[in-house]
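[job 4417] fold queue: 2 targets
>>> target A
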Amino acid sequence: MANVHIPKTGVPREQILSEFDALRAGDADWRGARTFSLVYHRDDEHSAFLKEAYGRFFSENFLNPMAFKSLKKMESEVVSMSAAMLHGDAQTVGTMTSGGTESLLLAVQTMRDRARAKQPWIRKPEMVMPRSAHVAFDKAAHYFGVKIRYAELAADFTVDVRSVEKLINRNTIMLVASAPQYPHGVLDDVSSIGALALRKNIPFHVDACIGGFLLPWVEKLGYPVAPFDFRVPGVTSISADLHKFGYAAKGASVLLYKSMDYLRHQFFIATDFPGGIYASPGMAGTRPGGAIAAAWAALRSIGEDGYLKTAKLGMETTKAFAEGIAAIPGLEIMGKPVMTILAFRSVDPGVDVFSIASRLEEKGWHMDRQQKPPCLHVTLTAHHATVKDAFLADLEEAAAWAKLHPEAASKGDAAMYGMMAKLPARGLVRSGVQQVLEKMYGPDGGVMEALPPDPMVERASRILKFGEKVLRFFGAA
């Protein structure tokens, strides 16, 4: 391991706080709205309030709801407020989780275990989901032994419902749709898939992790939003992240079920542990009380009027970004985004989109690169209204620069991302990512320096050179 030890004498607190500032000097600048994912910032006053709310329950441990009844009351009310917003009814139930990944993991685990109880003849469970569905479903399938059947996308990047129907078989334990999907911000046809789920008697999960706390307000503002929540017959569960457009503190999502008939299969109960009977509603044992308290505080302090106001500014900002991007020669918005997510690509053969990203990063923007097809992604909030003109000016310059420097596509990060997006041998990319992670979490403790050469990877244009930035392919939501 790295040669770092607990100091023999405690370091002064003031020094440690000063070191924090030095350590984060090279981090992405979310405070200046130079990032387009990862952080969902409403305003400084709200953030200060969240810190206060979180701090009030900093030490409380929601491992035992009987010991901390205050946290159980807050979780119940967060679930109830979320269910009402998403048109649940008196039978709707759910739990809070640590984030979208845990919500999606639990949704898959729950449907697998429900199938085991109700359809024991299914020995090899399968789920049908769009290719654009969040990668956390892939993680869940890997963890819980569920095979994924990927439904293809239509020309507008929504899932092809006919493809979904063709993939359903006797082993299908759940269907999935996104509201919206993260890569392009488009809303899958939840109503049609819901009708399929009803006809086939299959549970149907809607992943609204990124849209769940924004789409309801976008709809109330009068924007066209097709039904995606419990209003749609056939929808049996929904996930929605509070720490995204709910503007709660990090570590807060909600997972809702149509009834206890589904939620009961999420619970874990052990009765023979010498330490006593153990029961847990989700994956975590210890659950930080601060995240629950901050989520409860966020929903109640912002209120419907506050969410509507923030959503309005966010949508106006997105419209300005979209119009500005589309006005730049050679760039195109992909699909028909339903909220504040935009993906754009180059339609000029002489302009490499990853060269544009590299140029933008030189100017201080933290860009999210995507593949299949190659494009760039921005998730926008009201906070980005302050940088709209600066970003569009830099983007226009970057696109013009990329056209004048076609050789940039074969150099540096642009070449690496371009090759990874197009490389048909995905095992080579996986090998590179594997080595990056082994180096990052190995004995050197995160020192990102040159990795040992791998002959197979060397033959693929030395893809190990991309280093830390490859982690963006894991998903930035």
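>>> target B
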Amino acid sequence: MVIADRLSEYVNAVYSVPGEYHWLNLVIATIFFAIQIYCDFSGYSDMAIGAARVMGYHLMINFRRPYFATNIQDFWARWHISLSTWFRDYLYIPLGGNRVHFKRFLFNVFLVFVISGFWHGAAWTFIIWGALHAFFNLCYNIWNKYAKQRQIAREGFLWNAGGWLVTMSCVCLAWVFFRAVSFQNAKEIFYHMLPFNSSVPFKMAVGNTDIFGQGFGLFSLLIILGCLPFMFYIEKRHEPLLLEFNGKFWKDVGFLSLTVFLVISFGVFVKQSFIYFQF
């Protein structure tokens, strides 16, 4: 309610008419959508895990901080783990997995990702999204094999930072096809995202929200994005994403009061469905 639904107002406004916005607005909207879909999907997965735990069922973790991944393979080991596990067990392994020659292994990877795109919907946007991730994974596996043969070092801060930047750039660009309502809409978004194709000025206020505007709007944006490090800290310290109170009264009251304050102050209360409900 506080992060995903608030950011969706910006994303919906910009992506609906991309030609009316500056290229930087489109870049920001793409990054916001990456945050939106994670907080939306991970959030309701956590609620499902918590509701099941109340009834005595232990469900698997569905996300493990995927936006900290330093390569595309690592990203898919952290994102939508339940679906990835299902495709691994019922498609990838029956095809032979990685226990085949390298070319067949690459084909298996490509096929799994294309079918995962088709699983999301019989539309070109989803199929292209799956094909892009197939391509990214093929490139990574080919590079990984080459690096092993050449004994190229793949560690250290600069290596991980570069890997993270490339991975997140690929993931965010692929999200454009996932979010676009049609292939034509995706083409238009990419076209106007290029700086030399943008002829309109940067807009501080977008659509019906002043999330990137002045005063309370700017303050609310900082609060929303400031919630992310706290959320990641909770996820890292408390597996499986379930925060248990330690019995210290004032600490518990303070945490709950802050949560309620954020929801009341910055939450979106109009009816919105979770993104993945359509699947």
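[job 4417] complete. Note on B: Residues 23-54 form the longest helix (32 residues).
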